[in-house]
Amino acid sequence: MSPFVSLLLCMLFMSGDLGSSCIEKERQALLDVKANLTGLDESIYDWGSNEEKMDCCKWLGVFCSNLTGHVTYLSIGGSGSTGKISPSLQLLNQLEYLDLSHNNFQSNPLPDFLGSLSKLERLLMSSANLGGSIPHQLANLSNLLVLDLKNNSLSGSIPFFFKDLTSLTYIDLSSNGLSGNVPNSLGQLSKLKYLDLSYNSLNGSIPDFIGSPPIWSLDISHNQLHGNVPNSLGQLSNLEHLDLSYNSLDGSIPNFIGTIPLWHLDMSSNQLHGSVPNSLGQLSNLTYLDFSSNSLEGVISEVHFLNLTSLGYLDLSFNSLALDLSFHGIIPSVLDTIKLQSCKLGPRFPIWMKTQRNFKHLDISNAGISGSVPNWFWDLPSELEFLNISSNGIEGMIPKMGVSFLGYPGMDLSNNHFEGGVPSLPSRVSALNLSGNKFSGTVSFLCNFDGPLTLLDLSNNSFSGSLPGCWMKFQEKLVVLSLSSNNISGEIPFSLGTLSNLEVLYLRKNAFVGEVPTSLRNCTKLRFVDLGENKLSGVIPEWIGELSKLYVLVLGSNRFYGMLPSKVCWLYNLQVLDLSNNGLSANIPRCFDNFTAMARRSFRDDVITSHAYSSAIPAKCYFLNGNECPSDPVEEAQFLDNAWVAWKGAKRLFGKSGLSLLKSIDLSRNNLSGKIPNAITGLFELVSLNLSVNKLHGEVPKDMGRLKSLESLDLSRNEFSGHIPWSLAQLNFLSYLDLSFNNLSGRIPIGSQLQRFSYTSYSGNPQLCGPPLTPRCGFLQVVEKKDVKEEDDDSWKLYYIGMGVGFAFGFLGICGALILSHRCRYFVFASLSHMKDWMYVIMVVHFGKLVRKFR
Question: Can you give the pTM of this predicted structure?
Answer without folding.
Answer: 0.81
